[in-house]
Specification:
Blueprint: H1 2-17, H2 21-34, H3 39-51, H4 55-68, H5 73-85, H6 89-102, H7 107-119, H8 123-136, H9 142-153, H10 157-170, H11 175-187, H12 191-204, H13 209-219, H14 227-241, E1 262-268, H15 277-286, E2 292-298, H16 305-313, E3 316-319, H17 325-334, E4 339-342, H18 352-356, E5 362-365, E6 380-383, E7 399-402, H19 423-427, E8 431-434, H20 443-455, E9 460-464, H21 471-482, E10 491-494, H22 500-504, E11 508-510, H23 519-526, E12 531-534, H24 543-551, E13 557-558, H25 561-573, H26 575-590, H27 597-619
Helix pairs in contact: 1-2, 1-3, 2-3, 3-4, 4-5, 5-6, 5-7, 6-7, 7-8, 7-9, 8-9, 9-10, 9-11, 10-11, 11-12, 12-13, 13-14, 15-16, 20-25
Protein name: protein O-GlcNAc transferase
Keywords: Glycosyltransferase, Repeat, TPR repeat, Transferase
GO molecular function: protein O-acetylglucosaminyltransferase activity
Length: about 625
Amino acid sequence: MKKIILARQNVILKLISEKKNHDAEIAARSFILKHPENDFGWKALGALLFFRGEFQESLDFLLKAVSINNKDPECLNALGNTLMQLGRIKESLDCFDRALEINSNCASAHNGKGLILSRLKRTEEAIESFRKSLKLQPNQIEPYYNLGVFLIGLGRIDEGIELNRHALELNPNCIEALNNLAMASQDLCKLDEALYFYEQAINLEPQNKSICSNRLFVLNYHPTKSKKEIFSYYQDFDNKFGICYQKNWHLHKNTPNLNRRLHIGYFSPDFCIHSTRHSIEPIFENHNHDQFKITAYAEQISTDFMTARYRKLVDCWINTNGLTDEALSQRIQDDQIDILVDLAGHTANNRLGVFARRPAPISVTWMGYGYTTGLSAIDYFLTDTVTVPPEEEKIFSEKIWYLDTPAGIYRPSNHMGETNKLPALQKKFITFGALTRGIRINFRVIRVWSEILRKIPKSRLIINSKSFVTSFAKNKLIEQFVEHGIERERLEIGYNTPPWDILRNMDIGLDCFPHNSGTTLHETLYMGVPFITLADRPSVGRIGSSILTGIGHPEWIANTEKEYVDKAIMLADDLNRLAEIRKNLRFDFESSPWRDEKGFTQRLEKAYREMWKIWCNNNF
């Protein structure tokens, strides 16, 4: 009998090695029927379901396998990976620890533990776990790209690049390594190089929605591609990942009553300490819960105090981690959501596959991304006329829904402290500055900023961002300014957080283009620092324009690169005027619509009600 069991196991293993997963699944189910007391069949089927993305189903089989044999480190490791995908972090970590207690040399368990620890932001422990995995199995590819992408996220780009290149040496067709190298390239603002890596990955795996989404993300920052060309990629995304679901769009049975309480669902992977909290928290606080039931769909791996805060502010909280797009779509339909709001766009951990299935009568995208999703399934893009002038509506897949400028609010961080006096009055030179990621600092930006520095003797430039935490990244950027004749000593590049004291050392802020900054521009103004922005490609290139219009200072908006330089020089030439601006800018901000939390929430709710009226009129 043992020989028969072993032979059947070998058949399953051979099918898996040949990637004949369908046949392997049939064989595993047959094995379970014949040998229900043997953990192998349960473990094999659990693993096959895991790789198919059916994590909840995988969990059931792996739990059964562990109940039969709780001393198998491989099975505990597989169970840990499944629990991780389902967002059950503590249980997942426990499984990896149990596997390592049984076999401290289980490389895959060290790798899985590294993933969990990285998501828990236990940085040094995560790195140690990944390195243990690499030491035990130096030819195992996963720890290379897992540690590599983790280090890239920490700003240790050079180390991350080296690890991912090693992964490619082991497997030239490693999709994950190609994706990670693209991310490293974009952090260094080598956008054509990033697109090259994404194209390689997409050629290998055309149906990889995540990598196609990443490519769209980086295209938004490209300094020379036209808006028409960029939009064409978004249309291609819809053709590949959106339109195919139209024939199965749900027939919505929501009661078309104009005046009833509406059920609003907000989706985000960022209900945590994230820049979007400056807008989302005050909206959740000010929603009229008599008129609107609020549900948060949270794609959360780890949580923090802001997650707990959000949970208290909504009527219903749904953790979407581990749910397939189809399952989440069905859940949203069962919840009878009237209006589903996307706050992620093509950022990490988005669930646009759910929106493509159109699980609610009305869907809206807003704030978290800044440009179209490309999906014809989404009804509205919420914005203002400064960000998207009416003549630019054609480069959006959604219908533009205009709010008064600005189409958002901003709540300042606690402990920012008071503004200070203009630094230039004491230092006797102007300090320009930007709090921005490397992806935004392209050759156009460097050329214009260098021209400003050349025309204003003794001036300095501060660039503060996580992108420049290492000497490698700093020197790469400095070299580009040196090529434009700017001395190294005039540049202060690094990373400090929180950046309030960095802002206190700036006299004038400089926005990037064609993709403007966002939250950091609000922070700059709130600390009394005016900034110059260039109104570039809608809509990501007009974020700065909307912010300045909303605060009442459109005079700092430039329409050409020459005008950008001229406006920077004009501000720098009059220190008394600049000191007066610094003195009053926080008051200007506090008095502006950006700080009208209740008023904006009411305007947003009015927009929701008007959207609902349109739907009802078409469905009575």
